């Protein structure tokens, strides 16, 4: 593991202890997770074998396994992998949910398995500078026609850019920094990187077709402003309504706090 990934491991391992509790309390995250599932379901078939990258505590892995899919949940962090293993013991999903501690730039360590779906949720892939370090491993792991859905933080976030009007110039445009942005989590500091839709397309290359993209949190606030959803419900509902109308249309399908992108593998 590189030294920067060791720090990422430490940060997320500390966070794993209270990750699920924080997640459950956050109404925006709850809505977003449900929305991501609605995006995935038209592509996911019950017999599909799913590979999940940066699976965290396994909330999504557990959900997809309970839908009848087999899921290999992978994550870099010791603490997150422990949480997934605990969930595997708690729920009787024997054979349907498995876990492997793995960085997503080392997917070649997965042996003798082929997948129909690769899933990554909520910005785990923003911990790597170049997505082609991940996508280079996919063809060897995928059946022809397999889908890939990634939920990633893009470079353009209107919500953050409005901070410019309030005098927060640095924060407003931080996502555009070429060499990444220092994140602070649980007392640890590590670099994060924002990926535009064209960066993502380039990383996938010609053997993957981009079939759907949509923005998440375009005008409406991101999860760390859950206070606004609770205290200003009318404003929040109005902004969510606008998001809903525009999220699949250019250019809002590539802007937001996060974007959801789905590709289909065409074969070599
Ligand atoms: C914000 S959490 C998201 C977790 C989960 N996908 C969810 O939706 O709750 C980011 C996750 O990315 C993982 N991660 C960061 N860098 C990684 C890497 N190089 N390989 C695999 N996982 C990584 C972290 O350990 C953490 O669990």
Keywords for this entry:
12 helices, Rossmann fold, globular
Structural summary, described in words:
- This protein is an alpha/beta fold and 268 residues long.
- The chain has a single domain (3-265), classed as Rossmann fold.
- Helices cover 37% and strands 22% of the residues.
- It is built from twelve helices and nine strands.
- It has helices at 3-16, 19-25, 27-40, 59-66, 78-90, 132-135, 138-141, 158-161, 169-172, 197-204, 226-231, 233-246; strands at residues 49-53, 70-75, 97-101, 115-120, 142-152, 181-185, 188-192, 208-216, 258-265.
- Helix 1 (3-16) packs across helix 5 (78-90).
- The model has no long low-confidence stretch (mean pLDDT 94).
- The chain binds S-adenosylmethionine (SAM).
- Residues 5, 8, 12, 54-56, 59-60, 75-77, 80, 103-104, 121-124, 127-128 line the site of S-adenosylmethionine.
Brief synopsis:
This protein is an alpha/beta fold.
Count of extended strands: 9
CATH homologous superfamily classification: Vaccinia Virus protein VP39
Low-confidence stretches: none
Spatial sequence of strands, sheet with the most strands? 3-2-1-4-5-9-8
Outline: globular
Q: What portion of the residues fall into strands of 2 or more residues?
A: 15-25%
In the CATH scheme, the class would be: Alpha Beta
The kinds of small molecule bound in this structure are: S-adenosylmethionine
Distance between the termini: 30 Å
Architecture per CATH nomenclature, i.e. the level-2 architecture: 3-Layer(aba) Sandwich
Mean pLDDT: 94
Percent in helix: 25-40%
The CATH topology is given as Rossmann fold
Determine Rg (CA atoms, Å).
Answer: 18 Å
* Biggest pleated-sheet summary: 7 strands, mixed
Q: Which sequence of SSEs, written as H and E, runs from N to C?
A: HHHEHEHEEHHEHHEEHEHHE
